[in-house]
Amino acid sequence: MGDKVIRLLAGGDPVSGMQKSDMTATDAFTSDDHTELNHTFFATPDDSVLAGVWECAPCREEIDSYPVHEMMTVISGKLTVTNGDGHAETFTAGDTFYIAKGAKCIWHIEETLRKFYMIVE
To answer: E-strand spans in 12-104?
Structure first.
């Protein structure tokens, strides 16, 4: 981990691009498009810290307890996150935000979302 500097690229790996991912439940998708892609640029040996790029088609999930600490920067698309008290924030290209582990929220991708992420368990 120590001395690495890693450039995260919006298109994933320069050779292989992005790979299929399955973090989103099939019934959460809100259209016939179920595309979900990911490329992890960095992971600690125990996967407790991850950094990469992720893309997902429109979907909506009610999350009782967000599973990780996550900081994200939207590359493209549109996402609205509604927290436990009903306050909603919409994020689009260029926005950076953070969700704390354990947060109750509604995650609603309104337009296919591509984001950079850094996750800490």
So the answer is: 19-20, 36-43, 49-56, 59-63, 69-83, 88-92, 96-99
